[in-house]
Amino acid sequence: MSPRPHVDRATRRAAVADAAARVFGERGVSGTAVSDIVRAAGIAQGTFYLYFESKDDVLIAVAEQFVAEIGRELESAVAGPGAAAPVRFGSLCDALGRLATTPTRQGIAELLHRPENGALHDRLTEPLARRMFVLVEDIVSQGVAEGSMHVADVRAAAWFVLGGLQSVERAGTPIAELPGALDTALTFALRALGAQVEP
């Protein structure tokens, strides 16, 4: 009998969280039981509890992965070479709207946006907010350098834009309405930055 290959704890935990994310996407959070997750992960129920204390615990891990993926995808969305700053802002908002409304992620997004989950939302999205600030500051800086935006304080302008985009989410905008609301917020932000915006 050959020995079983060693899989480190972090890798196994991530694999269980990935399986949970798939099941949450298919069945919704409330329609998912631990037994559904272990079946999807191909592990025994007892093995699940070696890595997670409860369904809520694995849900937090899935939400952490969700937020990290969003950060990577947003960075990728605005990294287009040669695009003007307003176009990069448009790409950022398009990506935000698309990511929030992707069916496999919608259940997690809706859960994080419930008023009773405000503290969890803030804890999980704080690192994402820092990553987004760096992106937004870079875009504003580019806009000033290329002459498409006119602001004296790039850092303050970046906080203004980021605050406006976050307010769309924090105001309780339904997930399905986020893309349009983000476009409207971006239009206001670009005007405030002195960019020419089509009426």
Question: Key terms for this structure?
Answer:
199 residues; mainly alpha; Arc Repressor Mutant, subunit A; Tetracycline Repressor, domain 2; 2 domains; 9 helices; 0% strand
Per DSSP, the total helix count is 9
**CATH domain class name of the largest domain:** Mainly Alpha
Distance between the termini: 72 Å
Tell me the number of strands: 0
CATH architecture designation of the largest domain:
Orthogonal Bundle
Helix content: over 70%
- The CATH superfamily title of the largest domain: Tetracycline Repressor, domain 2
In sequence order, what are the helices and strands, one letter per element? HHHHHHHHH
Biggest sheet character = none
Cα-based radius of gyration, to the nearest Å = 20 Å
